Amino acid sequence: MHKDAEPHEDGGKREHVGAHMVSVFINGKRHVVPEHATIMRAIEYAGHQIIRGAGCREGFCGACGTIYRLPGDYKLHTGLACTTLVKEGMSLTQIPSVPMEKAVYDLETLTPDVSAILQVYPVTFRCVACGTCTKACPQGLPVMDYIQAAMRGDVAAVADMAFDCVACGLCALRCPAEIIQHEVGILSKRLTGRYLRKESRELDDRIAEVRSHKYDGEYRKLMAMDKAALSKLYYARDLEP
Ligand code: SF4
Ligand code: SF4
Ligand code: FES
User: Fold this and answer.
1) Which of 22, 55, 59, 207 has the least C-beta neighbours within 10 A?
2) Which segments constitute the 4Fe-4S ferredoxin-type domain (predicted)?
3) Which residue range is the domain that position 208 belongs to?
4) Quick one: 190 and 225 in the same domain?
């Protein structure tokens, strides 16, 4: 969801001489934007302020689901606005949320097998194995396979396959059986964590350290930092390979 932002200082003239620009259609209106911009950057460059449909801006939170078409291509493509680059002639709109009814359940009353899927998300069994969800997933996850695993009650396999799901909802948007795949994934991850994974001694140790205030000094240091210092620290962090 966008609203018009204040005009830029260039008075709205953005077709800079010498810059490599492309034209895109945002919600049906043509805009000229830099060719290497992400969709999110292009929307903002065009003068919109994104007030819904942006979060981490790094491909992690799933808030920026977008659908688009390209010239001469009949397909409706899906992507995350913060990581997908614009292309000449792209016609796009953001889908900041996919309507759904989230089931309320008590994990302690469920068992980690097919009965839980049947009880909480019976719609899962409407899957016709068309593969549309897998094609729609911007994370490249085998969505159809994890729904099939859910139908077999193999919640541990679902949890593994859906591990990198960012809950953008684009699979659910395209599913002809109207399944909410990511919620099936979340349920399976919870069941797996609660019942199937071995207890972690490392986690227990870390919780004990937190409770003994071992990290309070470091937290205080972080809380006192300004945005620039926090940002520098964040990007210098060690990432798991
Ligand atoms: S599985 Fe669905 S909700 Fe999760 S990232 Fe893929 S498309 Fe988005
Ligand atoms: S889009 Fe829906 S019906 Fe098709 S494979 Fe995925 S879950 Fe099944
Ligand atoms: S803004 Fe978080 S995934 Fe795009």
Assistant:
1) 207
2) 116-147, 155-185
3) 201-235
4) no
- Of the residues 94, 117, 133, the one at which a domain ends: 94
Residues 85 and 6 in one domain: yes
Within-domain flag for 241: no
pLDDT score of 237: 86
Distance 27 CA to ligand 3 centre (A): 19
In a domain, 240, yes or no: no
CA of 241 to the centre of ligand 1 (A): 22
61 lines ligand 3 (CB under 6 A): yes
Residues of the chain below pLDDT 70 = 1-19, 240-241
**Ligand 2 atom with minimal separation from the 178 CA:** 2
pLDDT on residue 8: 41
**Per-residue confidence (pLDDT) for residue 96, from 0 to 100:** 86
The verdict on residue 161 lying in a domain is yes
Distant-in-sequence contacts of 26-29, Cβ < 8 A, 24+ apart: 26/92, 26/93, 27/2, 27/93, 28/91
Q: What is the pTM of this model?
A: 0.83
The reply to whether ligand 3 has any atom less than 6 angstroms from the CB of 55 is yes
Ligand 2 centroid vs 133 CA: distance in angstroms?
5
